[in-house]
Design goal:
About 35% of the residues lie in helices and about 20% in strands. By secondary structure, the chain is of the alpha/beta class. A hairpin with a 4-residue loop joins strand 1 and strand 2.
Length: about 400
Amino acid sequence: MSGNISAANVEETLRDFWATRPRRPHDGRKIAGVAAGIARRYQLDPVIVRVAFVAMALCNGAGVLIYLLGWLLLAQADDEVSAAESLLGRGRSSTPTALTILLGIAVIPATGFFVDGGFTMVGGVLLSVGSIYLLHRGRGQLNRPDAPAFDVGEPVSTDDQTTTRVSPPAWDPLGAAPFAWDLPEPAGTPAATTPAVPAPRPVRRRSRVGVATFGATMVVLAGSLVASSYSSWFGVEHVLGLLVAVLGAGMVIGALRGDGGRGLLWLVVPMSMIGVALTSVDFEGIDSDRMGNTEARPTSVEKVEARYATSIGEVDLDLTGLPNEGSVTTEVEVGLGSAKVRVPADADVTVTCRTELGSVACLDQKSDGKDSREEVSDNGADGEGGLKIVLDVRSEVGDVEVSRG
């Protein structure tokens, strides 16, 4: 494998890991043999693997989730498939079906901890996956399982004897007279042609910049997880900044050496985009308890609510059905999505439109980008008088539009 990190190399490594994934041995196990199987596959001290699982378990249960998945997805030494695959009918596993179902049920609350466990839990899972990836890249060639071989000319065992499979001679390509294959070739029969062997592909010079940088990134992530318990500075956005800095340094070193590092872009770009979003937008207005679209069309002043809000979705408020008298004050708030308000053509409107990141179309005033804000006072086509409306329309991330009906 090349030492350069790229999307293609990652996919290749993950496929090879799955095809040659560790098997859980019967001897030397403490619980289900997950740690012992990993240690035996990559020729490590089992104590080191068990300590790693315990350390990840302290990250809000990340190690517990990884161990349960290993129990389900890693087959035992003498089984055809893993417990999860056996449940799907893909082969035989000695793990009882009832136990497999219980393990699957246990994964559900563990996954819930992954969602609700915060940055420490998510980081622990990412660190575990990254460590397994690096381990397989560095030691995947050790203790690989033997692939079954069966080819032309290989002995074939039958019930009472062992024969040898032989290819037909050139004069009998269809194999119609196998009883005469031992006879010498007739005169003039062209000899069997030997297929041309393609020239081997040139081996690229191995670069260690990508792998070394990825390993350094995992070390920084691990240190940040530990430090986050003692300092609030190690939040998601700051840790992402540290990781991007490490990856960027690796790319610079690879560029100067001229032998790798470009593949790190597939990590740097999405992490940078997430970091920019986290530092540019205030997500405090996004409440997971309020999601979905909200539509309202009140026909009287009394039916207008003081606030219309949604966390993720759209608020569509139509005030064009109100009578041309009285006064209305309301606000529209959206966490992630769009806010649209339509007001009567002749109403006296005082409105503030704002968005942390998005576009604003506030009557005849428009703007877009970060921290867009417009304040408009407009009495409509008939001038001052009639229905008075005071609006505060905002969206954390999305579009804000106030128009006349």
